[in-house]
């Protein structure tokens, strides 16, 4: 995969030039401190190390600047005759060739390694993002399938208990029952007409049994309906009221959350 941003691994701003200048100053100081001991031997070593470190942390542009500055300083201060730039001898040519070739080779290798490392990091980040998107999509698909299955289960439940239904309530006001959507689906599932469209109001649809329930109990469960068992008063044949156990079930569907209350058969 082509990753064009791999070459932009180095940090930006003025801090990298400050670091490069500090590394160059440290290389000069260390070599000057060792000059009485080493003399003209290996005058470029500290500058080579400084250029490599600067390349590793700051990028190729500061490293090249450190390399060129180190070449001039090493030739001027640590190659005899000292402080005589107008005199060029074999030591100067050897320093120019060996130091330049070795430094360019090493910083080029470091640059390629840093770009490969940064490219791997970018690809890892992209792969992680795609993996998270795939997981999110898979979770959404599973949730949608579960909600669809729940809708089918609710329609089957309504068709099975159509004669004992009292009411259906939508808990989410944004997905409240509507005559054109849910009632149509329910009527299709239950041809016998389990829901009284005339008794419809926002969020609540009444079933065939609601007219036999005591109005106080009906108002109570309509406002504070929760899943579980409910004891309600039903009108008996002798025009009296008898307690009946009712069951409320919850369904999480694609259209929202619904509570279905029915008389316990």
Automatic annotation (TrEMBL):
UniProt entry tagged with the keyword Cell wall biogenesis/degradation: no
Keyword hit for Transmembrane: yes
Places the protein is found: Membrane
InterPro entries according to UniProt: KdpD_sf, KdpD_TM
Principal location class: membrane
TM region(s), chain numbering: 17-34, 46-79, 91-110
Domain (Sensor protein KdpD transmembrane): residue spans on this chain: 17-121
Membrane topology summary: Multi-pass membrane protein
Record's keyword terms, sorted: ATP-binding, Kinase, Membrane, Nucleotide-binding, Phosphoprotein, Transferase, Transmembrane, Transmembrane helix, Two-component regulatory system
Protein name: DUF4118 domain-containing protein
Organism, as annotated: Paraburkholderia edwinii
